[in-house]
Design a protein that fits this description.
Elements lengths: L10 H18 L17 H15 L2 H4 L5 E4 L5 E9 L5 E2 L2 E2 H15 L3 E12 L4 H18 L2 E10 L7 E11 L15 E4 L5 H9 L17 H10 L5 E4 L4 H13 L2 E5 L7 H10 L12 E5 L4 H9 L8 E7 L6 E4 L5 E3 L13
Parallel strand pairs: 5-6, 10-13
Antiparallel strand pairs: 1-2, 2-7, 3-4, 5-7, 8-11, 8-12, 9-11, 10-12, 13-14
Helix pairs in contact: 4-5, 7-10
């Protein structure tokens, strides 16, 4: 692995190279061979990528969608830039240690906007409710959404409600969409990532996925694990103030840190090298993962993000994150290298290395 790379001389050349990489990335992504949808298509890994490419991207192709980010970035007639995102939430159980589907429905969309560089402002909320669902439970979920929106500084300004027959939904499904404005001069993108940049994670990983899995009560495993669901927009703003040259961000939800880093490596045409002994994982999460044979790199988070920052700003970024209540365990977990192109590698604690591939299959229950 080397850290040398010839960079294009102009912004036009950089953009041309980026478009070429995106095209290569699409061609490298797994092809859809299935004839029916499976649970693996919703896990955020290779099957999800194949489904998105073959069905949705093929039908709706446009420059904004082709970036395949957490939110679309669009330019308004006033030349202001806006981020726009949407997501659906189908978690079971509806309430779990540390949160509920109501918290997720706000936090998930707020976080998608924040890591796109936007300051979230407005949300919509649509509910699909199963006949027979208790009104008291619905009120509690809505109260969780209200509390989460207030904490994130956003307003829920429109919505919709549908009721389906018994057995047609797991109680309630929620979809939220959000909009936020991107401050003038702020730019993030995989095309800005360079060899030598540092990989920063905003805190410990894997809590949400493991909290939901154990809350289902099917594994006879007891562990004190709470979901990390939280709005990260304040955390993002604190980091960007300290590290204004930050290149790229993603929140590591479905597919976890491993899948997010793979997406970056393939789009940017670079290598992402992580250090196993620097990955922040709570002992109880690591123990539960070991018992179940699950790599915490692939476990979903709902209050953490990955950022690629310039090497000279890495210390400032981590310090700013740690000064925030949600970022106490932020740290540098790796670096970007020129080679091997499109690969994520993990330097193990034993001095070796292994490839971290994109998530295959569906090792976890529905978690967001």
């Amino acid at each position: 692995m080397t850290n040398t790379r010839t960079e294009p001389a102009t912004a036009v050349e950089r953009e041309a190279r980026m478009l070429e990489r995106i095209d290569k990335f699409r061609k490298r992504r797994p092809r859809l061979l299935d004839t029916v949808v499976t649970l693996a298509h919703g896990a955020g890994g290779k099957s999800s990528a194949a489904l998105v490419d073959a069905v949705f991207l093929e039908a709706f192709r446009n420059p904004e969608l082709e970036q395949l980010g957490d939110a679309a970035v669009v330019t308004l007639s006033s030349d202001e830039r806006m981020a726009f995102s949407t997501d659906s939430y189908v978690v079971q159980p509806l309430r779990f240690p540390g949160g509920s589907i109501g918290n997720l429905a706000v936090h998930g969309t707020v976080n998608d906007l924040a890591v796109a560089g936007a300051r979230p402002r407005w949300l919509s909320a649509a509910f699909v409710i199963e006949e027979g669902f208790a009104i008291a439970d619905l009120k509690q979920i809505v109260a969780d959404m209200r509390e989460s929106a207030l904490a994130a500084g956003v307003k829920i300004v429109t919505g919709d409600t549908k009721v389906v027959g018994r057995g047609a939904a797991d109680g309630v499904y929620i979809s939220t969409a959000g909009m936020g404005l991107i401050p003038q001069g702020r730019k993030l993108g995989a095309e800005l990532v360079k060899p030598g940049d540092r990989v920063v994670v905003s805190g410990t990983i894997g809590e949400h996925g493991m909290a939901v899995m154990l809350a289902r009560g099917e594994l006879a495993i007891e562990a004190d694990i709470d979901s990390d669901t939280a709005p990260v927009n304040g955390l993002v703003e604190a980091m960007l103030a300290a590290a204004p040259s930050t290149r790229w961000m993603r929140d590591a939800t479905r597919g976890g840190v491993g899948t997010v880093c793979n997406e970056l490596a393939q789009i940017a045409g670079l290598a992402v090298v992580l250090d196993e002994d620097k990955l922040p994982v709570q002992p109880q999460v690591l123990g539960a993962c070991d018992m179940l044979g699950i790599d915490p790199l692939y476990v979903a988070n709902e209050g953490k993000f990955i950022a690629i920052v310039a090497p000279e700003e890495a210390d400032a970024a981590v310090a700013a994150l740690r000064a925030h209540p949600l970022g106490a365990n932020a740290t540098v977990i790796g670096e970007v290298m020129a080679e091997p192109e499109g690969i994520v590698a993990l330097r193990t604690a034993f001095g070796g290395s292994r490839i971290v591939d994109m998530l295959v299959g569906d090792p976890l229950p529905r978690i967001c």
